[in-house]
Amino acid sequence: MGFSYFLAETTTQQRIPQNVVTTVNYPTMIYNRNNEYNVFSSEFTATRAGVYKFCAQAKVRGISAATSGSASLFLQRNASNIRQLAVQGIQGTNCVDINGCGTNIFLNPGDVVRVAIFATTSQDIVIESGYFEGARTS
């Protein structure tokens, strides 16, 4: 099986409702060594036990000039939040980057990792673009 690595991205807008944990969609595959990333569910499924590193980015904005608040980007393992990657303030329709990495994450075969976002904003927000990548480090 060897080295495990994937990189996926999105350039398609995704509307994120306020106060709802939402999976971020990364439907465009760039690399997918070992076929562990599923573009349809935007999930990575480990085939080997080991320590992994995941990084994610989402460029977000409010739906109108009146949008205010913040958004948090998380890693989830098996549908539970395991690591908060970043929090970013949202003001109006200006795009901001929310990004970060989670290191030393131990996975067993079959564990599923995805990126989720939670917006505590006055209105919905929109993801304009982003990426999700990961690799087994040991």
Which key features would you list for this structure?
six-stranded antiparallel beta sheet, mainly beta
Task: Summarize this structure briefly.
By secondary structure, the chain is mainly beta.
Kindly provide the radius of gyration, computed on alpha-carbon positions and rounded to a whole number of angstroms. Answer: 15 Å
Total beta strand runs: 12
In sequence order, what are the helices and strands, one letter per element? EEEEEEEEEEEE
- Segments where pLDDT lies below 50 for 5+ residues? none
| Binned strand content | over 45%
Walkthrough of the structure:
By secondary structure, this protein is mainly β. 0% of the residues lie in helices and 66% in strands. The protein is built from no helices and 12 strands. The protein has strands at 5-10, 14-16, 22-23, 28-33, 37-38, 43-45, 50-62, 68-77, 80-91, 96-107, 112-121, 125-136. Strands 1, 2, 4, 7, 10 and 12 form a 6-stranded antiparallel β-sheet that branches. Strands 3, 5, 6, 8, 9 and 11 form a 6-stranded antiparallel β-sheet that branches. A hairpin with a 2-residue loop joins strand 8 and strand 9 (80-91). The radius of gyration is 15 Å and the shape is elongated. It starts with a strand and ends with a strand. The mean pLDDT is 96.
